Amino acid sequence: MEETREINALLHLIDDPDHEVFDTVSNRIVSYGRPIIPNLEHLWENTPDEMIQGKIELLIHRLHFQELQANMSAYAKSTRHDLLEGSLLVARYQYPDMADTPVLQEIEKIKRNIWLELNSYLTALEQVNIINRIFFTYYKFKGVEVSYQHPEEFLINKVLETKRGNSIINGILLQLLCGLLDIPVKAIQIPRQYLLAYFDTAYDYFNPKKENGNNILFYIDPMNGQVYTHKDVESYFKKIGVPITSSYFKPMDHRRIFQFLLEELAKCFDTRDNRYKQTELLALAGAMGYDNTLK
After folding, report:
1. 89: nearest Cα among 79, 75, 106, 110
2. Structural element, H or E, at residue 216
3. 158: which residues sit within 8 A by CB, 6+ positions away?
């Protein structure tokens, strides 16, 4: 952005020790939006004072967050909640200048390698076995336990780069790949787990009254691709002492998926210095606008 007299004056007031002056200046700078970021970056590069640099960094962060919050809100209000778009939005909280192209290219490469192995004669289990082999064996993706010390393990760009992700982001990535390949695998809301399920697409046609329970053929653990039966899942519910209800076996709304991902990512910033990030991530989760009463 071209420096006007006002912008130049505002930039020179960033180092004002008066908090009220700085707050006023900050709000005015943020009102310019993303175009003023290059001016702030240039000022940062030419400012030797680390405290002033810190103020500039916070202003740049506020500008990125303001834009991300607007994009998240637009995503939640749209009629189409694309998994890839949502994943990229979440990753932009930590990597606001992230380029989409490397992520898209890597996903397309994985999808193509799976597609080359598929054919119309395979059973549902055979399809999933191929996906697991390509994802976990050929590409060597590794599932790791959820750790709030490693925020990068929640972000799609870093998981594609390092091949290390927790069950939530691995599950999102697997569901995304399955969606691109027209394979009916979706996340479900099993308590204390992030689990995928393979849905029988012919179920509703042959069972219009849904007399035989849910339309899930089997379950998939996104940590390692292990397949579970209905009996396995029933045993899990008995183990944790939770009664089984039909709501646990419905596909998760994509907004709910990202709400959950943001809520879990927020737990990575539970320290005094990073508490503002936790607050911001919870605000983004709220922006998903997901209502648990939705069917």
Report:
1. 75
2. strand 216-220
3. 91, 152
Give the list of residues 6+ apart from residue 119 with CB closer than 8 angstroms, or none.
none
pLDDT value, residue 200: 94
Three-class SS state of 38: helix
Q: Which pairing describes strands 216-220 and 185-188: parallel, antiparallel, or unpaired?
A: unpaired
Are 226 and 196 within 8 A, CB to CB?
Answer: no
Q: What is the pTM of this model?
A: 0.89
Sequence ranges of the domains in the chain: 5-77, 83-287
Residue-wise pLDDT tens digits, 122-146: 999 999 999 999 999 999 999 999 9
pLDDT per position as a tens digit, 275-294: 999 999 999 999 987 665 33
